[in-house]
Design brief:
The chain is largely without helices or strands and 82 residues long. The protein has 1 helix and 2 strands; from the N terminus they run ββα. The protein folds into 2 domains: 31 residues, no CATH class; 31 residues, no CATH class. The chain has a two-stranded antiparallel sheet with strand order 1-2. It starts with 19 loop residues before the first strand and ends in a 36-residue tail after the last helix. Bound molecules: iron/sulfur cluster (2 copies). The site of one iron/sulfur cluster has 13 residues, from loops.
Length: 82
Amino acid sequence: MAIRLSNNCLNCEFVTDDDFCRKHKVDVSPQHTCDSFSMKAKLKNENNCGNCAKFKQEACANPNKAAIGMLCSSWAPQEASA
Ligand code: SF4
Ligand code: SF4
């Protein structure tokens, strides 16, 4: 089972540090999302084996190829932060 970041306001590029949606001008929470969701570029660009929860673990889908800077579709977050 691949665990992925969810497409909610917490991971959207439009949310501010105090949970305010800059696009729709409303307060939001991690329980919300909308059709305008856009993943924070920071999260998109940083995914690689080096920050995968499965790196060097039994759960890694490609243990013989995994390396810093590599990525596969089984990538899983170590933790989700705002
Ligand atoms: S654009 Fe949509 S998904 Fe993004 S923060 Fe606003 S309400 Fe949430
Ligand atoms: S190969 Fe895939 S599952 Fe293994 S550490 Fe890299 S991204 Fe994670």
